[in-house]
Each structure stands twice: as C-alpha cells, then as structure tokens.
Design a protein that fits this description.
The chain is about 45% helix and about 15% strand. By secondary structure, it is an alpha/beta fold. An eight-stranded mixed sheet has the order 1-2-4-3-5-6-7-8, with helices on both faces. It holds the Pfam family Hydrolase_4.
C-alpha cells in the first residue's frame, strides 16, 4: 500500500506540472496564431495598379492628397470632364484593393460619369496601391484618408461633392459624410453596418479557425496591433449624422462576403431619405459587372438629383 501511494505521488509530481505546461503551451500557440492572423488581416499585400484612365480614353492628372491625420500621403488621379464639372465624385475602394478596384471595375464606371460631366477622383487608401502607410484598419483610419481627399477637393474646386464607395470604402464613405457636411450625398455599394459585429460573425469564415477562442483573441489583438478602436468604424452609428442628406445603398442578395441585410439595416434607419437597390445573382461588389447599364443609370440619376440641389 505504501509503495502504491508513493508511486501515485511520484506520478502526480510529473503529470501535474506536465499538464500545466501543456495548457500553457496551447494557450501560447493560440495567442501566437491569433497574432499572426491579426497581422495578416491588417497587412495585406498591395494590389498593383494595372491600368490608368488613359487606357479608357480619359485625360487625367496625378495627385497627392494628405490624410486628415496630417502624416500620410495618398496617391491618386483626378479625371476632369471636357466642360464645366457638375460635381466631383470621390471613389473609395474596398479592403485589399486600390484605386482601380478591378473587380467592380472603377475605371469604366468613372468614364461613364466623366462623359456625363462629372469630375472623378480616384485614390489609394493607406497601405494600399501607391499610398503611404503600412497598416490597413478596415475603415477606422481610412476615414481620415477620405476626409483629407475631401479637403483637397474643397480647396481646389467649387462644385458640390458626392462620395461613392464599395465594401470597406462604402462604409468609410458613410463615416466621412457624417463628419463633413459639405458632402452632398453618398452611393454605398455593399457596406457593412458595424465593423466589430461583422468581424465577430465572419472571422471563422475568413480564417477557417474555431470561433472559440480565436475570434475573441483576434478581435482583442487587432486593436492593439493597429492602435485603433473598432467601434469607430460603425456606419449604423453614423447614418443619423448623414441624414437628411441622401444615401443610395446597392447590394446583391447573393453577396457571399457581406450579407445584403447589412445595407437593409442601414437603409431602414431613414427610409424617407435613403434609397435601396437590391440586385440578384451578383457576388460581392459585382452588381456593376452584372447590371452595368442599369447600375450606371441609377448612379447618374442619383448624382443628377444631387447636382441640382434636390434629394
């Protein structure tokens, strides 16, 4: 009996520390993997600039804009119409993309607007394309980038300003319009309504990692890595400061990246002044590719109303 007791004690002395070590190593592995994933999400490889407005028969000038943060230089293009501009429309690209936004694509759509008398501004958000910065913040600091471009436009041109954004850029356009009341209206294609809740719901889909513990760890680590508050990127909390200025929401019911219910939530906050166009069969930000002519007509009708000073 005494021998058995001693053996159990000896086994306990080995297994208890070993179990603690295994738990600690597992926790460290989870944290390490979460740091890696958080780093990857905020440090996407830069998509190359693959075309210019000249490829679509448009004259343009290169421009450098200063982000509202006062320290980030943003590269872009200004495409003027042939005559006097009705309005300047600033395009805002999506996560991991640049001013060309090939999956929409931006340049053919810009040509439609320029041919109708609109000035178009295309630029790269921070850490994208040719702009400065080394970290994508999914709308939090990109809002300052867009506000900086708006300031440049107000300084150089007299005509009214509208914003057009897709995905992250759509959410960012709403955030910027809420802060700058010189923006006359917004066209938002496939935005999320709240970044933190969207990431919480979709992180397992993006990372293929179990929701527990990885989603919670990653959402704790990303703000620390990027020095940001995810709650800032919340269009649902900004739309009240955009209204009664109009927003045209465009979203496909078959969007597999951001559910169309996100745009519905935003639209329903002010259905009296907001507009909603739901398409079908198009994946994320692919409505223009599938419904090109109708997309351009709806966009131009919205902008024409803004340019005339109506909503």
């Amino acid at each position: 009996m005494e021998l058995d007791r001693k053996r159990r004690l000896a086994v306990g002395r080995i297994w208890i520390p070993l179990s603690i070590a295994i738990v600690l190593l597992g926790a460290l592995a989870c944290i390490g993997l979460s740091v890696y994933v958080g780093w990857q999400l905020t440090h996407k490889p830069r998509a190359p600039i693959t075309a210019t407005p000249q490829d679509y028969g448009m004259a343009y000038e290169r421009a450098t804009f200063a982000s509202k943060d006062g320290k980030t230089a943003l590269k872009g293009w200004i495409i003027p119409p042939k005559g006097a501009a009705k309005m300047t429309v600033i395009f805002a690209h999506g996560y991991g993309n640049n001013r060309v936004q090939e999956n929409v694509p931006f340049l053919p759509l810009a040509k439609r607007l320029v041919d109708e008398g609109y000035r178009v501004v295309l630029f790269d958000f921070r850490a994208s394309g040719e702009s400065e910065g080394d970290m994508i913040t999914i709308g939090v600091k990109e809002k300052d980038d867009l506000l900086g471009v708006i300031d440049y436009v107000k300084e150089h041109y007299r005509e009214p300003i509208a914003l057009y954004g897709v995905s992250m850029g759509a959410a960012t356009a709403i955030l910027a319009a809420a802060e700058d009341h010189d923006v006359r209206g917004v066209i938002a294609d496939s935005p999320f309504s709240d970044l933190e809740s969207y990431l919480r719901a979709n992180m397992p889909v993006w990372t293929h990692l179990p929701n527990v513990p990885f989603t919670y760890l990653i959402l704790a680590i990303i703000p620390a890595l990027a020095d940001l508050d995810l709650g800032v990127s919340s269009p649902i909390h900004a739309v009240d400061r955009v209204a009664p200025r109009p927003i045209l929401f465009i979203h496909s019911k078959d969007d597999h990246s951001i559910p169309y219910s996100e745009s519905v939530k935003l639209y329903e906050t002010h259905p009296d002044v907001f507009q909603l166009w739901l398409t079908e069969r198009a994946d994320h930000v692919k409505s223009f590719s599938l419904y090109g002519e109708e997309y351009a007509k709806r966009m131009l009708a919205f902008l024409d109303a803004l340019a005339k000073g109506s909503s």
